[in-house]
Design brief:
The protein is an alpha+beta fold and 825 residues long. 28% of the residues lie in helices and 29% in strands. The longest helix has 21 residues. InterPro entries: ABM_dom, Dimeric_a/b-barrel, FAD-bd, FAD/NAD-bd_sf, RIFMO-like.
Length: 825
């Protein structure tokens, strides 16, 4: 960690009001901005002038400008407001336009988030802020708040402590503990104090589940006397009642604060389970280097870590994603993957079920599709991407992994034995040696460029720009449905509004055309695909205009939490593999968000590649195993992209069979049939029914195992990191058949280095010979027989990614052994 100078500038240490209070209406906005290189001082001065004006706006309580010294051009603007109405009024006012105009030419990007302020504990003047973020399970929010209050009270009198605040992201279980300290040294001394654990014991059960921590310094604030001079008495009284370090009541003793002088105080980033932007270990070797820690990269890292493969996961971003809920829909197939990875319960707790889709064209409902299909193991979940990444990060950490943030790939070279990657961080550059490298670094992938992969995303750009926003909407439409509003003129779509429900009353992530001001600006510049921070985020007023034109009459939006601009593009690389390097997710394919395919397709890329890389890294892979990744996943990417482009500006209902369309969109019907590394051996009279080689292996219920007091699912048997071989026997199976299974299983296990689990699934009427050296699973309800269309002796080999790798009917030992040899070498 770099040395820290956190003096805080003039005024630090002055005595101010100390009060513990509860603020039920106060809200805080965090606007992250990047100043243009070389113009940081201009940016700070321009903000200060604009902030002095904003401090006169009724309802404004306070403003801070914070800077990250590890990346000197990165700033966070913090503003507290008496309530959301005051914030919304400011968003529609000329004062906001003045702030935008003052900073427009001095910054490169911006991102805004809004939080509820729950509790505040004031003390001495601040020099650094410590931000701790954690997620509390549903139903435990009140207990967490009470624990915070008890710990805050116990913190009184601690040397260097200034105050604490508790912030809550509305509609979620995410809380932010914001503490102010006289210096970073004072905070770190407290962390190392033996009394630390005792005084914070009430919070430890919540933080043990995972949290992140960052430290900032305060760079500038509007002068206190000018803040007071411009405040109305009503605003001052309201701010004080809210319990925030605010303007004093008329006649009260004046509070002292740091002056407006721009501090040069530095800060450091500290995160448990997340490595900081330190120089990577020189020439450190690893099995797999994963570049990009989004959902795709995290999924791959989990798959490798759970198999004991040495993996390094790096990401150019210095911080985890903020409140931006980019990808929302979690497909049924992804839920199955998460069950295998052990995180499906946490995802269900954090998300909401999506009941179906309603389509409205020119004010008239044309479709209402229900997505509740009881035959599927899981339904369609709504979960913001930042929650997805949090859950995946926690799982990776539980497996012993860390994300190396602030680390960027600068170049790579390959030879027959591995890949040499050049990495840079805030304090220097080094090289890393890996057996394999995977680029999951998004739409603007460095790995893709380094591999010289052909990618036509520029040619596939859509001319329109779109805006996304997280807001609350007032209307009487059914809850839990994805809502698609279209406007057509002469059969051509000229307006679109898509609303995806989120947790929270009336809360939606909405997508629609960008406002005219941004479209006009974009016409003069080249806007790349993906999310862009080139433009000021859309305002609540601009979102309301879109709702007025497309949503039901009288619809109003409020509580804007986050907004952004993005451009749709589509394209796919010509190759998914070059030597020992691979690409996955958005680095390999881009497409419109129709059906919510992007994140889910990337997760499936990683789930397919992970087990194959693990076998290769351990020396157990056949010569063509890694080639099968491209053979299987590139056609899948092409299929997803083709449909997404085809229906991007339609009602998306391109299949008369609504159930079949839903299963396709959820990637439940995805198959690798006909690819080189799946196969089958069917007798001339064997019926060709049930899941074929390459198909997803469906779940089965009603299985029984001796010694287990409850019925089992097939997914419980095949869950884990290895292959699963299922032999079947019914009443016609002889003892010779079943003894033959024993011999085949022993040979298969030797071939596969013990990486295959084997079971005998037997009909209730089948007779198991005494001493059979195979685990016996009884198909008590004959569900397995029905779903897998089994009659007589047969075998199914289920791959670690849940697809049928091989099937044999009857069981042909030679054909099965040939397939195992192709996979394991």
């Amino acid at each position: 960690m770099p040395n820290v100078d956190a003096t805080g500038g003039p005024g630090v240490g002055a005595v101010v009001r100390t009060a513990l209070s509860t603020a039920t209406d106060t809200v805080r906005t965090l606007l992250r901005m990047r100043a243009r290189p070389g113009r940081e001082q201009e940016f700070e001065s321009a903000w200060l002038k604009a902030a002095e004006v904003i401090s006169t706006v009724p309802g404004n309580i306070r403003q801070d400008l914070m800077r990250n010294p590890d990346r000197p051009g990165e700033y966070v603007i913090v503003a507290d407001w008496e309530n959301r109405s005051a914030l919304d009024a400011f968003g529609r006012s000329s004062h906001r336009d003045q702030l935008t105009a003052a900073l427009r030419d001095l910054r490169d990007d911006a991102e805004r988030n809004t939080y509820d302020v729950l509790h505040t504990l004031d003390g001495r003047g601040p020099a650094v802020r410590v931000l701790v973020t954690t997620t509390v399970p549903p139903g435990e929010e009140d207990a967490f708040e009470q624990a915070f209050l008890e710990v805050a009270e116990a913190m009184r009198g601690v040397a260097g402590r200034v105050r604490e605040e508790l912030l809550h992201e509305p509609g979620t279980g995410t809380f932010h503990l914001l503490a102010e300290w006289a210096s970073e040294q004072a905070f770190l001394a407290w962390v190392g104090d033996p009394n630390h654990s005792d005084r914070t014991r009430q919070l430890i059960p919540f933080l043990d589940r995972g949290f992140s921590r960052r430290i900032f310094s305060i760079v500038a604030r509007p002068p206190e006397d000018e803040v007071n001079a411009g405040a109305s008495p009503e605003a001052a009284i309201g701010a004080d009642a809210a319990g925030v370090n605010a303007r004093p009541r008329p006649g009260a003793a004046p509070q002292q604060r740091p002056t407006a002088a721009l501090s040069t105080a530095a800060s450091a980033i500290v995160r448990p389970q997340v490595a900081g932007a330190r120089r990577p270990e020189p020439d450190a070797a690893t099995d797999v280097l994963v570049v990009g820690a989004g959902p795709t990269g995290l999924t791959l890292a989990i798959e490798l870590a759970r198999r004991g493969v040495a993996c390094r996961l790096v990401d150019r971003s210095t911080e985890p994603p903020g409140q931006a809920d980019k990808a929302i829909g979690v497909h049924c197939r992804t839920m199955e993957i998460w069950e295998d990875q052990g995180i499906v319960q946490e995802a269900m707790d954090a998300g909401i079920w999506l009941n179906g889709q309603i389509v409205v064209v020119n004010g008239h409902q044309t479709h209402r599709v229900e997505w509740d299909l009881p035959e599927l193991p899981y339904a369609h979940l709504g979960l913001p991407q930042y929650e997805t990444e949090r859950i995946l990060t926690d799982r990776f950490a539980a497996l012993g992994g860390t994300i190396e943030r602030g680390v960027e790939l600068r170049g790579l070279t390959q030879d027959a034995a591995g890949v040499t990657a050049r990495l840079s961080a805030a304090d220097g550059e080094t090289t890393v040696r890996a057996k394999y490298l995977v680029g999951s670094d998004g739409a603007h992938s460095t790995v893709r460029k380094e591999l010289n992969l052909a990618f036509n995303a520029g040619a596939g750009r859509f001319p329109q720009l779109f805006m996304l926003a997280d807001v609350e909407v007032d209307w009487s439409l059914p809850e839990g449905y994805l809502l698609r509003f279209l406007h057509e003129t002469d059969g051509k779509m000229d307006g679109m509004l898509v609303c995806v429900p989120l947790r929270g009353q009336g809360r939606y992530r909405i997508a629609t055309m960008a406002p005219p001001r941004i479209m006009a600006e974009a016409a003069r510049t080249d806007v790349p695909p993906g999310f862009t921070k080139e433009y000021e985020p859309p305002t609540l007023a601009e979102l309301q205009v879109a709702l007025d034109g497309l949503a039901p009459p009288g619809t109003t939006a409020r509580n804007l939490r986050w907004s952004s601009i993005f451009r749709i593009s589509h394209g796919i690389v010509d190759r998914y593999r070059v030597g020992r390097a691979f690409v996955a997710g958005d680095a390999a394919h881009l497409h419109p968000p129709a059906g919510g395919q992007g994140m889910n397709t990337g997760i499936q890329d990683a789930y397919n590649l992970g087990w194959k890389l693990a076998l290769a890294a351990g020396g157990h892979a056949g010569p063509d195993l890694l080639d099968s990744y491209e053979a299987e996943r590139r056609p899948a990417g092409e299929s997803v992209m083709g449909r997404a482009v085809r229906v991007a500006f339609t009602d998306e209902m391109d299949n008369e069979d609504e159930k079949a369309q839903f299963l396709d969109e959820m990637q439940m019907t995805l198959t690798y049939r006909g690819t080189p590394l799946v196969g089958e051996a069917l007798g001339w009279d064997a019926p060709d029914r049930g899941p074929a080689a390459g198909d997803r292996a469906p779940d089965v219920h009603g299985l029984a195992r001796r010694g287990v007091g409850h019925r089992l699912r097939l997914f419980e048997l095949i869950q884990g990191s290895g292959h699963t071989l299922l032999f079947y026997g019914d009443a016609s199976s002889t003892e010779e058949d079943l003894r033959g299974y024993e011999k085949i299983a022993a040979a298969i296990r030797r071939q596969a280095a013990g990486l295959i689990n084997v079971y005998a699934v037997l009909d209730p009427d089948a007779v198991a010979p005494a001493g059979l050296d195979l685990p016996v699973i009884r198909d008590t309800e004959r569900d397995y027989r029905s779903v897998y269309a089994t009659t007589g002796p047969c075998a199914h080999l289920i791959r670690p990614d849940g697809h049928v790798g091989f099937r044999s009917r009857p069981v042909l030992a030679g054909a099965l052994e040939d397939h195992i040899r192709a996979v394991f070498g």
